Amino acid sequence: MALSPEEVAELARLARIELTREELEHLAPQLDVILESVAHVADVAADDIPPTSHALPLTNVFREDVVVPSLPLEDVLAGAPASDLDRFRVPRILGDA
Amino acid sequence: MSDLLTSTAAELAAMIASGETSSVEVTQTHLDRITAVDGEIHAFLHVDGERALAGAAAVDAKIKSGQQVGPLAGVPLALKDVLTYTGAPTTCGSRILQGWHPPYNATVTQRLLDADLVILGKTNMDEFAMGSSTENSAYGPTRNPWDTDRIPGGSGGGSAAALAAFEAPLAIGTDTGGSIRQPAAVTGTVGVKPTYGGTSRYGLVALASSLDQPGPCARTVLDAALLHEVIAGHDPRDSTSIDSPVPAVVEAARSGGIAGMRIGVVTELGGEGYAAGVQQRFDESVALLASLGAEIVEVSCPHFRYALPAYYLILPSEASSNLAKFDAMRFGLRVDDDGTLSAEQVMAATREAGFGAEVKRRIIIGTYALSSGYYDAYYGQAQKVRTLISRDFDAAFAAVDVLVSPTTPTTAFKLGERIDDPMAMYMNDLCTIPSNLAGNASASFPIGLDDGLPVGLQVMAPPLADDRLYRVGAALERSLQATWGGPLLNQISPLEVAR
Fold it and tell me: B22, B80, B133, B285: which one is catalytic?
């Protein structure tokens, strides 16, 4: 299927990773080899086989609706790159770059 | 080497409980060992000796005052750096989490502390548990104590190497595709992946949520079982945690009786592509199990050969979603935030700077497999294959009590040998992956050496029959140690000790 560096760049954009040109050229052939290998799942006739998303038969799990203390605000914000007024401080999210 | 370093965890616990030694003495001896050899091995990313000794002193005081303590009280342990432990960094081997301190303890961590174990530090791993060699750690590789030019396996190479280098008698790993069992195999140690849902994933930084499972790493089968009992059991904070009694693993490890047990050798996991020496040790071990009264049959699991491609679609798909949380907003690294760039640009620059090559590869493969137009052919088809693999297991376990195979196709390879060849690296997981896809219990036990390097045998048991792993492991250990004249690790060359 031969992924081009441009196609890898588009996937990286979707994944929000700003790959360098050098990385794109290095990764594209490696990703090709991986995709070619994993494509062998198509060799199995499985049209009538139900998919498994999880090893266990899962049912929804409920708990009692009781109030328990949250993590201390100070501890939660301690690991943040930036915080202000008891909130996470983030770069601007609106407007053109 | 001090006897306190070579003793088993069970022996240490008994000596600490009786007052023959103290947890402080045992802990200090291991901290000294880490100082002496970890410059060479690099099993640990973080060690906090002061805190470990304070914990040890508290256990000693508890024992002295006659309080009831658990069966591993006072024994030091190495914790894989993917499980949160407050007051210490959790990095997952990644630059994106460098210096991050978690605000809460993982359930596994909390159970270790509640059972009075002493945490020495956090162990090295492939970044976000992606890899089979620990070479993908952003902080440099771990070396195999059997041959320091070789890999210790991965992703939990740090935990396995800490055991084999006698830096810790116990360790915790996590297993998504073999990250406990493959390092155990290549370091001559014991590693167990419990039944999915048998141990809690709360506080385990997720790689692939439907596959990840924490488990015990040890030098003996009994030690692994004792640790298994400490960490296992239902946790309301993990909605996939199984609400049923923990299998009687310690009892099974003490018994080791396998007379009449039906053991299936998986046809598809052996032969071509397997190193001759690995296959030879495996065949000898199967013969040994037969001589101990087990009934050996050959079992075919035809879909296992599609396990690797299915896994390398399911895992990256789940990982690409799980790792989206590393967005430079709430924790970890943030780069290029100079006030001119948007959140999205900062996010993309941070993920570029913070993730290593393998993490990027897998996120992009996952993004591709989940994208519209490819979803059915890749992720959807892989999920169907997952069903077929589970059915193979169901059919096999209707005929036999456990399945066995080599744990890995080869012994430890050299550092750097496969780092830029992803498919060659992925082949390490050939035998271990099916049990992650199906969620059944699985373990690796040491069965000897090939050209001076350890070989492991994998045992696979039905879900919630984890005790059978320990029964087979104990039987092998007892007979093999009688032949070897002691533990396999007695045959390791002494490491050079830093002064």
Answer: B80
